[in-house]
Design goal:
The protein is built from 2 helices and 9 strands; from the N terminus they run E-E-E-E-E-H-E-E-E-H-E. It is 7% helix and 43% strand. The protein has one domain. The strands form 2 sheets. It has a 5-stranded antiparallel beta sheet. The chain has a 4-stranded antiparallel beta sheet with strand order 1-2-5-9.
Length: 153
C-alpha cells in the first residue's frame, strides 16, 4: 500500500492510495479535522477547533489505484450529531493511512512513506465483514483504476 497527496493546497487536492497486492485491503485514513467558527456573530474573529480523526475508507480492490477527493474526505469527517463541535468540517488534513494485510496484521503508513506496525491501534477494521465494509464508506463514491503490473507478494 502506498499513499500520497496530489495537488496539495490546491482546489483539486486529493489523497491517492495504491494497493499493489493481490488481496483486497481494508483501509482508514487518519488526520486532523478542522472547523472554523466566529467567536461572536458580529465579530470577524475566527476560532479554529481541530481534532484527530479517522475515516474508514473501505476495502481497496487488489491491484488498484483509488483517488479520494478532498471534498469527499471532508464530507465523511463531519459528525452526524448537531451538538458536536464538528457538525460540519471546514478542512481535513490527512496524515497517513492504517490498513490491514491478508494475514490480519495492521500497518501504518504516513504521507512521508514510512511504514510501521500498528499493533498498538484498536481499529474497527479487524471486526468488519469484508462484504459489508464498503456499505456507506467513501470508496463507494470512487472509481478504482486497475494497476498493472501487480505484486505477487
Amino acid at each position: 500500500m502506498t499513499v500520497w497527496l496530489e495537488g496539495f493546497g490546491e482546489e483539486d487536492e486529493a489523497l491517492i492510495l495504491a494497493n499493489r497486492s493481490l488481496h483486497p485491503v481494508p483501509v482508514e485514513v487518519y488526520g486532523m479535522r478542522i472547523h472554523y467558527k466566529r467567536t461572536t456573530p458580529h465579530d470577524d474573529t475566527v476560532e479554529s477547533i481541530s481534532q484527530g480523526h479517522e475515516i474508514v475508507l473501505g476495502v481497496l480492490p487488489p491491484c488498484s489505484r483509488v483517488t479520494f477527493t478532498h471534498d469527499l474526505l471532508m464530507r465523511n469527517s463531519a459528525d452526524e450529531d448537531p451538538e458536536s463541535p464538528f457538525p460540519r468540517v471546514d478542512d481535513f488534513d490527512p496524515d497517513g493511512i492504517v490498513f490491514m494485510d491478508a494475514t490480519g496484521q495492521k500497518w501504518r503508513r504516513g504521507l512521508s512513506g514510512k511504514l510501521s506496525r500498528a499493533s498498538d491501534i484498536q481499529l474497527p477494521l479487524a471486526f468488519y465483514d469484508f462484504d459489508e465494509l464498503d456499505v456507506g464508506t467513501p470508496i463507494r463514491e470512487t472509481k478504482p483504476a486497475k494497476l498493472t503490473p501487480c505484486s505477487v507478494q
